[in-house]
Task: structure prediction
Amino acid sequence: MSSEQVIYGKIILGPEPEIIKGYICLRDGVITDIGEENTTSEVIISPCLVNSHTHVGDSVLKDPVLGKTVDNRIERDLDALVKPPDGLKHRILMATPQSELIEAMKRTISDMIITGTSAFADFREGGVPGTLALKEALEGKDIEGMILGRISQTEGDKSDIEYEAELLLQESHGLGVSGARDLDRNVLETLREVAASRKKPFFIHSGERDRSDIGSALSLEPDVLVHMTHAEMSDLRQVADQQKPIVVCPRSNFITGVGMPPVEQMLDLGINVAVGTDNVMLDSPNMFTEMELLVKIFGVDDRQVFKMCTLNGASILNVNESGYIAKGLSPKIMLMNGNSDNLAGIADPLRGIVRRARPDDILTIIN
Result:
């Protein structure tokens, strides 16, 4: 049976977001009409958010010690936390029973849904079993998850690497590689070849701790680069020339002490930049916090930040029906309470969402 609803409010409309007062008509989830009307409704009608880089397996540990305490100050050590195969997260993942891992991931996925995220891309450790665990965690969840599998081997014969990668790509959407410093070059090249032969995306961490692995990562011609925190202008020009997107994780980089990515330079060069929350053990998957940080600490333009966390992410993840509101589309929409104690008094709904909105300002999610 067909269902129809009309929603009045302030609409964040289109791929180049503009604000109009009016209504949207939805029939069976598809936007059939959008009209301008001088409504008094304080509801803000917005596309849901896209989290373009996560590690939801880390949900089994959410309060790790970030490093050694020296003179009442924590000295952070990124490699000790996350570098395979012996970083803290990898030791925890190896020691966690599959049932506990799946339950922890389910809870993080539910958290993403209620905080306005409609799609995410996850670097899933643990080879085929790890990918299958995330697929099970996603069952029945109203969110689009791109699973980027990671092989369990860090070295070995080419035939063995190819075999595991082929098995992995039968269950995942693509490959998500830790970084060019963490794997033998022959392994990296084999993984890239297998992904290309299967026409599956190849994502790679790059330039997070320092610049030393950027050249190697770029030479693999990945489909998406993650972090690029220490990229120099020459690196970014190469990325722009190759028309490769970048996913930045500003809150994670800030917390681990590795620096802040040059987001404005990326945008100035026309690079498609999206945003992720990265490791769940370090940060909640709350995209509102990422937006606020980008605006208030980085000083990035409000509309650019909004696009990075909606349309840009959707384009990178190839989530065709998400990212913006327009007639004929069926995006996931969040209705925000523009009259909440937090948002009452904002002059621009988009600016208000980016700078100060919280998950508790969400009235409901429309799928």
Observations:
- The chain has two domains: 4-48+323-366, 49-317.
- The longest helix spans residues 98-114.
- The CA atoms of residues 156 and 187 lie 8 Å apart.
